[in-house]
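tool_log.txt
---
The assistant was asked to compare two proteins side by side. It first ran the structure predictor on the initial sequence, then on the second. Raw inputs and outputs are pasted verbatim so the downstream comparison step can read them without reformatting.
(1)
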Amino acid sequence: MSVNPNRIMLIALCIGSLFIAMPFCGATAPGLQTQQAPSANRRIGAVKEITASTITLTPDSGSDVAVTIQPTTRIVRITPGEKDLKNAAPVQLQDIQIGDRILVGGKVSDDNQSFAASSIVVMKRSDLDARHVQDLQDWQKRGVDGLAKAVDVAGGTITIAVRGKDVVIHTSSQTVIRRYAPDSVKFDDAKSSTLQEIHSGDQVRARGDRSVEGSELAAAEIVSGTFPLFAGTVNSTDASSSTLSVHDLSSKKTVLVKVTQDSQLRHLPLEVAQTIAVRLKGMAGGASATATSEAASNSGSEKGQTKRAQAADPNSAAVESGMAPGRNARGGRAGGSPDLQQLLSHAPRIALADLHKGDAVVILSTEGQAGSGTAITLFSGVAPILQAAPNAAQAMMLAPWNLSAPAGDLGGP
């Protein structure tokens, strides 16, 4: 496939708009989170099982541990965000439930398999769920997200592009800054970071108080990460290792992409891909154009992929026509223009086995190591989009991010 490199980011940034697991997707509990390495006399994690006077704890790192409750064990409960145990309330063992987060103090056995608890600090799962909802709403209300354009370490600011407009994020000594790990999109794996680690092109999300005109934000919290977006063609797939080899159309290099149970693999039916291509041409200000001969030659393959996608997802008929509740045939609001994020997010899911040599794909992945990464989202059936107008990439920069998270996650801001 011959594709102008300037067009490659066209759908790639749209995939970025469906993005990844955002802050608070996991079970990390505010107030029970620590930046220090676990000490020999402390364990923190989630309650897996409770039998008699023993709690099976799944720690944040390491294997499960049997926590033995002593008659003298002190058990208290705190609310998410609370950091002073003076405000903790005494509770009993029977008040602890599976899924609760606990911080256990005591003495570990010689074989490191059991733990005699002298104290347990409990954070209820129900409290965490409620806090998660509150945080999500706050991120949606006071958050901004976009691609970093400039970082001024001395001035303590980050300029990001948000729907075609610049927003300057101001930091202070109180701003919490985190960065996603190179091989993960889970906020639980994000590490404490600094402004120096944020670079132009990084995806940045911040929440705080915005100025009246919305062009500035005083950040209370920032999370950033590098998530490569690229278009290519499939060289091969390997079911045994759950990987696929992709020829990157921009770098002309081969990239090895790992597929996990959290990876979202979707196929754009031909009609939907053509709708998006037309929409993006309009966004780029391009004139109407007829389909290229290459797009036409790919149509047979695309239709074959559509049939495979329909087999994988019986509900894809509405997707193929671009229809969704309350939307027109192009995926937009009734009487409105196509909603690109809706068209993408409703595309039917596929499996690694549905991908074949020569298929055009666009992938959002983790940073990983050189020449490799883990797929966050992959779209096949994108040939018509990669044939879009030369200026379509610039138009795609204006598309808003979708705040939803991948399947299997609780969601996030």
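(2)
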Amino acid sequence: MESRTTEVKSIKNSRVKIDVIPGHFATNHSHVNYYIDMTKIKTSHKMCKAAANELASQYANTHIDTIIALEGTIMLASFLAQSLSEAGINVGTDINVVTPEKNVNNQMIFRDNVQHKICNKQILLLISSASTGKSISRAVDCLQYYSGNLAGIAAIFSAIEEFNSIPIRSVFGLLEIPNYKNCAVANCPMCASGQKVDAIVNSFGYSKL
């Protein structure tokens, strides 16, 4: 599977790169025809900082108090907070970075000691990948429960342009991966044609079958 890997550069910033593998992959929500490997951005501080600078430029005029980091984006969120505080409307501010916990029902929660970082604050949701919007929907439900105000949604890769009329700003999109497709399991053409699933994928990586 790894032999099919192609490196893709962001159109917005050629220094930021991801690896893309074509195939048949199962996520929690759907089946997709590409696995998007974001390991470089999530582990390399130089790559991560470059990606954060790109996202920050798209939120220079958006007031943000707290970044909620989802799907292993905590380092990216930290660099993003730093970049946001260095220019634009957020210059000089101390931006919080928090990540939710999941309870036994797989619901996102925040403990009492960090809830004040959410309540009545301007929140930027940061997610690694947005393809169906379901993960974003769960995060927004959590945010509303804790009385946070959704100021924006950012992603490393997004196959969708908006969620409930809120634009999703991303480093990578369908311009870089124009043939990216996701579909419900019941309607998967790859399953219908008998193509075996290559791997189960999530925000941590992949497990080959």
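---
observation on (2): The radius of gyration is 17 Å. The domain at 2-200 is CATH 3.40.50.2020 (Rossmann fold).
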